[in-house]
Amino acid sequence: MSAVGGGGLGGVGAGAFLAELEEQPAPQQTTRRRGRPRIWRVVILTAAVIFFLGPLVASAKYSLIQQNGKYGFSNYSQILSNGDLRRSLFTSLEIAGLTAFIVVSLMLPTVVLVRLRMPKLTLLLEGVTILPIVVPPIVIASGLAQLQGSAPSWMISLWFNHPLTALTPIYVVLAMPFSYRAIDTGVRAIDLRTLVDASRSLGASWFSTMIRVILPNVETAVLGAAFLTIALCLGEVVIATIMLYITLPVELIQVGASNPGVSVGLSLISILFVFLLLFLLSFLAGRRRGSTSVRVI
Amino acid sequence: MIRFEGVQRQFGAVMALAGLDLEIQDGELIALLGPSGCGKTTALRILGGFDYPTAGRVLVDDVDVTNVPPNKRDMGMVFQAYSLFPNMDVRTNVAFGLRMRQQDKARRLKRANELLELVGLTPVADRYPHQLSGGQQQRVAIARALAIEPKVLLLDEPLSALDARVRMQLRAEIRSLQQRLKITTLFVTHDQSEALSIADRVGVMQAGRLEQLDTPENVYRHPATAFTAEFVGAMNRLPGRIGDAGDVQVLGQRLTVLNPEGREAGAPVEALLRPEAFVALPDAAGAGEVTQRTFLGASVRLVVTLDGGQTVLVESSSHDAAAVGARVGLRILAGAVAVADPGVAPDPEAVPLTAV
Amino acid sequence: MLPFTVYILIFLGLPLYEVVHGAFTTDAGQFTWHNFSTIFSESQYWNPLKNSLILSAWTASVGAFFGTWLAAAVVAGKPGGMLRRVVSSGSGVLAYFAGVPLAFAFIATLGRSSTAGGGVLTGLLKHIGVDLYAHGFNIASMFGVGLAYVYFQIPLMVILITPALEGLRPQWHEAAQSLGASRVRYLRHVAVPVMAPAFIGSLLILFGNAFSAYATALALVGAAIPLVPASINDAINGNVLVNQDRIALALGVEMILVVMIIMVGYWLVQRRARRWLQ
Predict the structure, then answer these.
(1) pLDDT tens digits, residue range C63-95?
(2) What angle do CA C253, C255, C256 make, to 5 degrees?
(3) pLDDT per position in chain A (297 positions), as tens?
(4) Judged by CB atoms within 8 Å, which residues 212-231 of B form the interface with A?
């Protein structure tokens, strides 16, 4: 999974997708079709299904062919038996979890604060969060490599020594564009001012308000941002490779050279996993839209 | 002349139009009036060609156009909102239909300018739709529809999205334009004052059926069905009892019943009376008390609460209307009245009747 | 707000600073244009730039074209229906999933048939007598990479263009019809002009997306592909020539410039689109 295959620009798409989930559906148009379903739609949709499902189906078949030429699941069990692979998976998961946590903890309060106290800064905030998109990950990687080369030893031991400390902060920056967009849309959808005033007037601290009142009501947005951040981290390969850290996708490429079946199979699982997450998320969003009640924990 | 013959439109289990028979004469403006879902918009869209009937046919000057696509019918359509092309300025929008008819540029622009002058929008001819107000946009839409000199003008609630003042103004302008150009027009609305004020004839619709088609005066004064009676204008329902002579006793007055069929002596009914059918006279021993008074300028609306709790809406000239808290007696000016069963929504199949 | 700005300054600002600073200095620390003059004069660096631009251009165009048709087919259906939901989630996933899984999926489909199992499609085609690889096709080539790019460009286009398509009010089509326009004429005079800014904007995003991408190429071909990101990779890791870090940074600045130009173009186009589709 490399969310950053297209730099942050693919993230714009993801952010747009999340934003679409949060926004109210467009009012019903009264278009009445003149009868039979149009042929062009059927043709296009069929072609699309073939084109997009094809490689996935092929991946499934491919991944089931073991090294010994027979069908089986050994490629999939590699994730458990192969030590390098397992380690890289844990590394990636750690990084993903930490990144998602930091992203949400950083973005949510900032978005809330800007909306409440400093609305004039909104434009600036938007501009800043767009910034990571302009810099392709490979370029960030080159800057980092340069930094690593000339950095003082305290910085090296603090920052660059372990992938967790090295990659997480960078991934947070990479995740910003779309997670900002998603969280911002979620916050816009609720009546922030009223909720906060009510909560504060009842004696709650800022922290309490954030956790108990705001957070539950922007669930879908936050979850969406978190999911995509996780997807990003599990898939980011450019920066990790350049900086010579071994995360899951890096290891998959390594393994892929000698045993592509494993890489194909594990990649397939990751795609399906995230698809499932987002699919379920869209149902959650739909359900929330239906209820007008405010939630408080 | 336009004719709907037995036009039916069914959507799955819903019958949007249940057999519409309607004739529109040349040069007349017919307003289709009714609550949402009554089928008025469906009828309009079928006439325009944007929808097709599941049964019946539509004829224009005796030619069956039921299956003719909308771009081949010679009809101008004005929508409720958003119909102007955003990528063209006002003049180009208005000239669009002429462009489709392959007229050369000079003629197109000349005609567009003519129409813009007709609707009073010459100063904004170079602006874009998003720069115009709602009222201006609708004017442009009208100009655009008229530019092609259509045989028929179709208006789908064109004023509903505008604010009250603009609505009044535009309403009058549309009517005067229509009369000047003598163009056959079908106007759909849910606003009864709109329908009554501009139409040559009003068609009241409910649940896919045409309840009554008549001049505005007749629809108001002589509602053909109880639905029409209550939908057009305000209507009071006063309890009474059918007497031996087929009349009804209401508020101490004996009135002739216009629709006595199936009602026996002694049966409780509710009499349907318009607010202006009453006079409220100050009377210390009167039947009710004025609990609300709304000053409307030329007239006054009073809500008179009777001792039994029943409220009656009375409309009278502002000269001699009683004040709030005054005790009044109500006298009914009508000699005959239509009745309905108590507490039941008016029977749509009610036999046609005439009231005073 | 403060912790946020500090964070950005450190973790985005620092690397960026390194890049820009390093691109303009020599190893000794003096200001120089040398790095830039090198990358703009030597064909070793011109070539990848050309390739990157061409690749981005054609994958963006193909993606934009088919993406619009696909989006139109979906939008014409029931809003909120299952089709919408599936396409929406699917596009979200696919648009974002370039890189490793995509590369491997394509290897599985169109890889050389001789390796373990080999590409499924390649094998199928071989059965009916069409030998792709004999005809010079190779998934691990510029074209193969481009094909993989198209796989995520189309969904991205679907996501980007759907709001604009939904903004096409049915009243416009009906009004046009009432004025005598056929479907084709409506498309030509109204729908296409109205959609044009959104289309161009999305096309630009697709272009930038492809230009910045590297993961897919890396996984499919390895470091040998003649694209700008690969040149940066080479220069840093000293694969071709040693001590080329500054060249890498200059290339980085080059990439940033290209993307910035695209973003400016996008912003300009968006302004126009927003005005009309109010």
Answers:
(1) 999 999 888 888 887 776 777 777 777 777 777
(2) 65
(3) 233 344 455 555 555 666 555 554 443 334 444 445 578 888 888 888 888 888 888 888 777 776 666 666 776 777 777 778 888 888 888 898 899 998 888 888 888 888 888 778 787 787 777 777 778 888 888 888 877 777 777 777 777 777 788 888 888 888 888 888 888 888 887 878 888 888 888 888 878 877 888 888 888 888 888 888 888 888 888 888 888 888 888 888 888 777 777 888 888 888 787 778 777 877 777 665 555 556 665
(4) none
The residue among A87, A263, A115 whose CA lies nearest residue A193 is A115
Of A155-169, B63-77, B87-101, B174-188, where does mean pLDDT reach its minimum?
A: A155-169
Between chains, do A267 and C105 touch, taking CB under 8 Å as contact?
A: yes
| C-contacting chains (≥3 CB pairs under 8 Å) | A, B
CA distance A268 to chain B (A): 43
Which of B44, B96, B138 should we substitute to test contact with C (largest number of C Cβ atoms within 10 Å)? B96
Which chain C residues contact residue A231 at CB under 8 A? 96-97
Q: Is A151's Cβ below 8 Å from some Cβ in C? A: no
C-alpha–C-alpha distance, residues C23 and C246, integer Å: 5
Quote the pLDDT of residue C57. 93
Which residue in A57, A133, A138 is closest to C233 by CB distance?
A138
Helix (H) or strand (E) run with residue B188 in it = strand B184-189
Structure tokens at C205: 């995003």
First to last CA, chain C: 32
Q: How many CA atoms are closer than 13 Å to the CA of B256, on its beta-carbon side?
A: 8
Of A267-281, C34-48, C101-115, C254-268, which has the strongest mean pLDDT?
Answer: C254-268
d(CA B205, CA A274): 53
Integer-rounded Cα radius of gyration of chain A: 22
Which chain B residue has its CA at the smallest distance from A35's CA?
B52
Q: What's the mean pLDDT when you consider all of chain B?
A: 85
B333 vs B158 pLDDT, higher one: B158
* Residues in chain A closer than 8 A to C215 (CB atoms): 2, 4-5, 235-238, 249
Fold of C45-221: MetI-like fold (1.10.3720)
Strands (E), chain B: 2-11, 14-24, 29-33, 55-60, 63-64, 75-78, 152-156, 184-189, 201-206, 209-214, 236-242, 247-250, 253-257, 268-273, 278-282, 288-295, 299-306, 311-317, 327-332, 336-340
| Residues of chain B neighbouring C275 (CB-CB closer than 8 A) | 130
Name the residue among B73, B76, B82 with its Cβ closest to that of C171.
B82
- Pairs across A and B, CB distance < 8 A: 6
Nearest CA in chain A to C76: A41
Hey, how many other C-beta atoms are within 10 angstroms of the C-beta on B270? 20
A74-290 adopts what CATH topology?
A: MetI-like fold (1.10.3720)
CB contacts of A134 in chain C (<8 Å) are 256, 259-260, 263
Distance CA C170, CA C177 (A): 11
Q: Are B273 and B333 in contact (CB under 8 A)?
A: no
Residue of B nearest to A33 (CA): B51
Alpha-carbon gap, residue C195 to C183, rounded angstroms: 16
- Work out the end-to-end distance of chain B between its first and last CA atoms, rounded to an integer number of angstroms: 33
Place of tokens 């009610």: B350
pLDDT at B354: 36
Amino acid at B76: G
Q: Which residues contact B65 (CB under 8 A, 6 or more apart)?
A: B49, B58, B59, B73
Kindly state whether A12 is in contact with chain C, defined as any CB-CB distance less than 8 angstroms: yes
In this complex, the chains that touch A, judged by 3 or more CB pairs closer than 8 A, are B, C
Asked if the C-beta of A24 comes within 8 angstroms of chain C's C-beta atoms, the answer is: no
